[in-house]
Amino acid sequence: MATSNNHVMYVLECSDGTYYTGYTNNLEKRIAVHNSGKGAKYTRARRPVHCIYFEVFENKHDAMSAEYYFKRLTRQQKINYIVTRSEEE
Predict the structure, then answer these.
(1) pLDDT of residue 34
(2) How many domains is the chain partitioned into structurally?
(3) Is 87 a domain residue?
(4) pLDDT score of 2
(5) Residue 65: which domain range?
(6) Is residue 76 packed enough to be buried (19+ CB in 10 Å), middle (13-18) or exposed (0-12)?
(7) Which residues, including other chains, have CB under 8 Å from residue 19's CB and lie 6 or more apart?
(8) End-to-end CA, the chain
(9) DSSP code per residue over 31-42
(10) How many angstroms separate the CA atoms of 44 and 66, rounded?
(11) Of 18, 57, 58, 77, which has the maximum CB count within 10 A?
């Protein structure tokens, strides 16, 4: 997972089965922060988390736009998005 110094939109699955979506420029470090309890308030009570999907973008704006779009989808739409994009790779 070579995602250091890139612009990444990521999706984590929390221990309770919910999804958390975020932006980072260092995915490995960000996941470690979430799992240490120092990340987002939402993930602190839902550890451990694991990355189920990520997308790398050329710039921060595009990555954050993708995050914004993804957060507005229903759970089923999120699943479809992940499956469809994963099959394309």
Answers:
(1) 97
(2) 1
(3) no
(4) 53
(5) 4-82
(6) exposed
(7) 11, 12, 13, 52, 75, 78
(8) 14
(9) HHHHHHT-S-HH
(10) 24
(11) 57
Q: Is residue 88 part of a domain?
A: no
Classify strands 50-57 and 19-26 as parallel, antiparallel or unpaired.
Answer: unpaired
pLDDT in tens, the chain (89 residues): 555 679 999 999 999 999 999 999 999 999 999 999 999 999 999 999 999 999 999 999 999 999 999 999 999 999 999 999 988 87
pLDDT value at residue 84 = 95
Check: pTM over 0.90? Answer yes or no.
yes
Q: In terms of Cα–Cα distance, which of 12, 3, 1, 8 is closest to 51?
A: 12
Consecutive H or E run containing 5: strand 4-13
Q: Would you state the structure tokens that stand for residue 5, as one six-digit string?
A: 């110094």
Size (the chain), residues: 89
Q: In what order do the strands lie in the sheet with 4-13?
A: 19-26, 4-13, 50-57
